[in-house]
Amino acid sequence: MIHPLGTLAAGKDPEHWSQVVAEPRRAIDTGRTRADFAGEVIALIAKLSEDGPLGVSLSLPFGLSAAMKRHGLGLEDTISAVLSLRAALLSVSDLDAATEPVPLRVPDPVLFVLNLAVYLDGLLGRSSRALGLSRGEVANVTVEHLVSN
Prior knowledge:
By secondary structure, the protein is mostly helical. It has helices at 34-48, 59-71, 75-93, 109-131, 135-148, and strands spanning 2-3, 6-7. The protein has a two-stranded antiparallel ribbon with strand order 1-2. Helix 1 (34-48) packs antiparallel against helix 2, helix 1 (34-48) packs across helix 3 (75-93) and helix 3 (75-93) runs parallel beside helix 4 (109-131). The longest helix is centred in the last third of the chain and has 23 residues, at 109-131. The chain is globular, with a radius of gyration of 18 Å. The termini are far apart.
C-alpha cells in the first residue's frame, strides 16, 4: 500500500496507525496546583536536556505550551511558577543565591519564559553537580520542596 507521503513502514499493519496511543482527557485540569505545573516543567526540562542543549530544542516551546494549557496558566502565572522553581532549586542545592546569575527579564513574556527554561536547565545541572544526584533526582527533590512549602 502506498501512502501519499511515501511507503508505509515495513511490518506495520495499516490498522496500526489508527490505534489510540493516549487516553483523551480535558485540555485544562483546573484541579491541579502551581506546584504540579512546576513539577511538570522541571521534569520536562530534565528529560529534554538528556538530548542536548535546551536552547535549540523545538520540544521546549511545545512542551511548555502544552503544560500551560493543561494547567490553565497564562504567561504571568507561568513566569511566577518558573521563578518559584528557581528559588526551590537554590534552596535544595544550597547554591549561593548571591553568586547565582539572575535571569534577565525581557519585554516579551514568551521569550522570557523560554529564556527562564533554558536558565533553569543550567541551574538544574549546577544543582545536580552540587548534590551529586542526577537531574531527575534533583527535579524530584525540588518538587517535594515546593509541595512542602
